[in-house]
Design a protein that fits this description.
Elements: H1 2-23, H2 29-45, H3 60-64, H4 75-92, H5 103-106, H6 108-115, H7 126-158, E1 162-165, E2 168-172, E3 180-182, E4 185-188, H8 195-210, H9 213-226, H10 231-255, H11 260-269, E5 281-282, H12 288-296, H13 311-322, H14 328-333, E6 356-358, E7 364-366, E8 368-370, E9 380-388, E10 391-397, E11 406-412, E12 417-420, E13 423-427, E14 431-436, E15 443-452, H15 454-462, H16 472-478, H17 483-492, H18 498-506, H19 511-524, H20 531-539, H21 544-552, H22 560-568, H23 573-581, H24 589-597, H25 602-610, H26 618-626, H27 631-639, H28 647-655, H29 660-668, H30 676-684, H31 689-697, H32 705-713, H33 718-726, H34 734-742
Transmembrane segments: 6-22, 34-55, 126-154, 304-322
Keywords: Membrane, Transmembrane, Transmembrane helix
Biased composition (Basic and acidic residues): 349-367
């Protein structure tokens, strides 16, 4: 058992060091997550894997590790071993040996003699006490984990305010604590944050929940319990925590499209000293500086995936050094254990947070948070409110505790009419919303009731706008869809159903906005848009201002469909301007989109042009970017003597893995006039400085790169030449050694 623990600790150490050296700076967060979790699995499985004998000194580390011993033997077992040893000694002295299994019972005299041995020979071994101390540590840390789980379950059970948000449960705590999540439960103290910060926190923790990051931390915690004495397993656990935060931050910035600077400011704002439980994924980490640096760092290119290719030789080499080779009997009787890395089983991230936009009447229009099913009646329930300048910001949900749905919206304070001490009414064309409770308090709550306007319901039915949605009228109420709005839609479209009205309401498209979108489509697409096209434009944030921006970029006369495509890929005036300043002028919008897709950095274009590549095109720049060719790489090649390479040659050098160091090593051996083509061909055939040095030292100082490549093809190296010389084949030409190799050293006439 001790040997297994030592081996597992060593494997964890190798995994941690490899990650720190090669992978921690890469932005492949999903791949790093698989690697880190896979390393936990490998640490506990590789010690059991045995391979056939492949190298000398295989299993060397196993020979220097403390071996397994009697960690739990009792006194009688120790007596038996001692008696067996003494019995063997008697046999050697001419006395009949006594079977060890029967000594305690059949040889009382010998047992009495043995019982008179010093106590130190019959007590528990050091290994026993060491193993006992290990079990004590496991018990202590296991108890800590169970206590943490108990605290979490207690908080969930005792919390009076829980909100069901899809498959996520938001637990609003009554005491101040750092936000955190555990599987699909999100814990937050809502009174400590403003509305925007609260939304960022919830979005962040939802991503943790949907990616099952709690499972990663739970597995890491269990591994840390089993190897509590190893510092490497704790360090791996820390890296798992940090990578989870990096992955979540990337989703927030790239998928949720939050403002990066504001999000980072919120991270700093929430950096309070209240530490959450270690098995929860938490918004407030102590690695804020590293997280912010990672968010601002340049994303890794696919070319950097080569680093993962070293995983197999690293762990295979560790396995060879750790475990002794299996005997032929073991190999025939047992199959070698196979290990594989677990695949990430994260759900696809979906946007689920309300987005605010300015309403025509001056209030902030918020969209539905957790969309209720079409059969759930939400005409009555509970409301929670706080004041925001001239607005009442309300959240509606179905129950005080866990709610199957919830939605929020801000209304202007003048929208509500006070009808009693604790009664407020808002009336629109679609119906009447009545709030019972002290709405005018800074923070308040109560019950609400929505009453549909029967005339409006009959009006919808008469105009064939029926829907399967039970709460259609309430949603139209929130979105200010009234008769005037419906009449306008009737004037534009012959028929439409309630489902389209529902989509308009959900996406908060006001009548003024809708009219503006129609004007945009007619101007740029020369046709009347469908309702689905307008909804798509709204979803992607295309408006009159963005269309004007596109025209200012130098792309007039585009269809609105193409403009939406540009918006989807994040094309803005500053990016186009930077491309032009870098010399990539006269680009079509399609080419700009292509540049954006391939992450073309205008500064990189400028750097390459500064090196003399004035004919650089976008197509060539994309190819260079895909393979990771940068100005710094070109300068490295130039420092190694390759000063006049074309872009195609530079790209070819990168593809074949040429670097300045290897080129300088070859030149240092006397190949000062070697050309790019020779170095490239040498690289392709595996001819490096070590190979060249071996042949030169074997007695062929005038070797050329071309002849070295030919020698490599025929598997001739310095060792082969030296061995041939010992047999009498002493040549000054590599061609003769090639002939010797081809004829298998069987031509005596070649000897000189």
């Amino acid at each position: 058992m001790n040997e297994f623990l030592y081996k597992a600790s060593i494997i964890a150490g190798v995994a941690f060091l490899f990650y720190k050296v090669f992978l921690q700076r890469e932005s492949f967060f999903t791949a790093n997550r698989i690697y880190l979790i896979g390393c936990l699995v490998l640490a506990f499985t590789l010690p059991f894997v045995s391979l056939p004998s492949l190298i000398n000194h295989q299993g060397y580390l196993a020979t220097v590790l403390p071996q397994n011993s009697s960690t739990g033997e009792n006194s009688s077992r120790v007596y038996a071993k001692q008696l067996a040893a003494e019995s063997s000694a008697q046999g050697i002295a001419g006395k009949p040996p006594v079977a060890a299994s029967k000594l305690n019972y059949q040889d009382p005299a010998l047992l009495q003699k043995t019982s008179q041995q010093p106590v130190t020979t019959t007590g528990y071994s050091f290994a026993f006490w060491l193993f006992t101390f290990y079990l004590f540590g496991v018990a202590v840390f296991s108890g800590s984990l169970l206590i943490q789980l108990g605290i979490i379950l207690y908080r969930i059970r005792q919390s009076p305010d829980k909100i069901q948000d899809g498959n996520i449960v938001i637990v609003n705590t009554t005491q101040r604590q750092a936000p955190c999540s555990f599987f699909h439960y999100v814990f937050i103290y809502p009174d400590a944050y403003d509305f925007e910060t609260y939304q960022h926190i919830i979005s962040h923790e939802k991503i943790h929940a949907r990616l099952y990051h709690s499972l990663d931390l739970l597995l890491a915690e269990i591994a840390a319990i089993l190897l509590w004495f190893s510092p490497f397993i704790r360090l791996l656990k820390k890296e798992i925590e940090k990578n989870n935060e990096y992955q979540t931050d990337a989703f927030m910035v790239e998928k949720e499209h939050v403002d990066k600077q504001q999000y980072q400011l919120n991270l700093l704002q929430i950096a309070v000293p209240n530490r959450p439980l270690s098995i929860t994924t938490n918004y407030n980490q102590s690695v804020l500086k590293q997280r912010i640096m990672m968010m601002n760092a340049k994303r890794s290119t696919p070319h950097a995936y080569w680093k993962y290719s070293f995983l197999v030789p690293v762990f295979f080499g560790t396995l060879l050094l750790l475990n002794k080779p299996a005997s032929s009997r073991e190999m025939s009787g047992n199959n070698t254990q196979k290990n594989s890395l677990p695949l990430e089983s994260a759900d696809r991230i979906q946007k689920a947070n309300p987005q605010s936009e300015k309403h025509p009447n001056g209030s902030d229009e918020s969209r539905i948070w957790n969309y209720p099913d079409s059969k759930t009646d939400i005409s009555s329930g509970y409301w929670y409110s706080h004041q925001d300048k001239e607005n009442y910001c309300l959240e509606f949900k179905g129950s005080q505790g866990v709610s199957q749905w919830n939605m929020s919206r801000c209304f202007g304070k003048n929208s509500f009419k006070k009808t009693g001490d604790n009664s407020f009414v808002l009336t629109k064309d679609a119906g009447t919303l009545q709030l019972n409770g002290n709405l005018q308090a800074e923070v308040s709550q109560g019950k609400y009731t929505f009453t549909e306007n029967k005339d409006f319901v009959n009006y919808l039915a008469a105009n064939s706008t029926a829907s399967q949605e039970k709460n259609l009228v309430l949603f139209l109420f929130f979105a200010d869809v009234n008769r005037q709005y419906v009449e306008f839609l009737k004037s534009q479209y012959q028929t439409f159903d309630g489902q389209r009205l529902l989509e308009i309401a959900i996406h908060g498209i006001s009548l003024t906005e809708y009219q503006g979108y129609i004007a945009l489509f007619e101007q740029y697409s020369h046709k009347k848009p469908s309702m689905s096209e307008i909804i798509e434009a709204k979803i992607h944030g295309v408006d009159q201002q963005y269309v004007q921006d596109i025209e200012k970029m130098g792309f007039p006369g585009l269809s609105l469909k193409k403009i939406i495509e540009a918006k989807i890929h994040g094309i803005d005036p500053s990016y186009v301007q930077h491309l032009k300043e870098a010399g990539l002028a006269n680009l079509s919008l399609d080419k700009v989109i292509e540049a954006k897709i391939h992450n073309i950095n205008p500064n990189s274009v400028k750097e390459l042009r500064a090196l003399g590549f004035g004919d650089l095109t976008l197509t060539k720049m994309i190819a260079l970017n895909i393979h990771g060719v940068t100005a710094a790489y070109i300068q490295e090649l130039q420092s190694a003597g390759l000063k006049n390479l074309t872009l195609d040659q530079t790209l070819e050098a990168k593809i074949h893995g040429l670097d300045a160091g290897s080129i300088k090593e070859i030149r240092a051996l006397g190949f000062t006039n070697v050309s790019f083509e020779e170095i490239r061909n040498a690289r392709i055939h595996g001819v490096d400085a070590s190979f060249l040095k071996g042949i030169k030292e074997a007695g062929l100082p005038d070797l050329t790169i071309e002849k070295a490549i030919e020698a490599k093809i025929h598997a001739i190296d310095g060792a082969f030449i030296q061995e041939a010389k010992k047999k009498g084949y002493d040549f000054t030409s590599i061609d003769k050694y090639i002939s010797l190799k081809i004829h298998n050293q069987a031509i005596e006439s070649l000897k000189e």
